[in-house]
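Section 3.1: Structural characterization of target chains.
Under the original work plan, the team committed to producing a structural model for every single-chain target entering the pipeline before any wet-lab resources were allocated. The record below documents one such target. The sequence was received from the expression subgroup and is listed exactly as submitted; it comprises 216 residues.
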Amino acid sequence: LQVLAYNRHTYATVSQRLVITVIPAPGGDPPYQGEFLVGNRNVEELLPEAVQEMFLTASAGVWDWGDLQIINITSALDRGGRVPLPIEGRKEGVYVKVGSHGPFSPCLESAVSPQSLFRCSLGQQPLASCYDTFAPHFSIRWCNLTLLQVWPSPTTPGPVWGSGVLEEAGGFEPPTEVPSQDLLPGFLVTLLVPLAVAALLCLLLGHLMCCRREGV
């Protein structure tokens, strides 16, 4: 993977080649996944490992489980967000997807309840039955919280390969011969029908051009 980065202030660019090895998770993909929108961060500010550990610690405070892991980090600009104005230190916003093998806490479920969604539509804060452990380092947009339950799809068994040797079940019997068919009617229909239509058109055209002239 070749990464091309640029400086926001000087617009200087630098490229770096990274070799990434993808291996399956030891315990499989976590079935419970929650996606948080961090409004006061840019995507590059959440890439350091220390910041991710801080975010996981804050997530464990509202999830009530400690086996959390970050699955994906996406800039809000890639989700249709607007570029912030260069004033007051505004940030782009980052979507952080966190997964766990433990179920969602009542706090998270209350934040995505219909009552919370109704309050969000009115421009109010959603319902939350727990203390926000993300503050003051991370400003979470609770109205954009998404909870997903991902279960592994059943794998279909693959083909069973044999030894490649034909079993002793007698000699090879070729398929029976196809009985002969009479193709003459079909040939005549395919040939005569267009000729008949062409003849009728010629007669009609000759009648219109020769017999419909003025004075005749």
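The longest strand covers residues 32-38.
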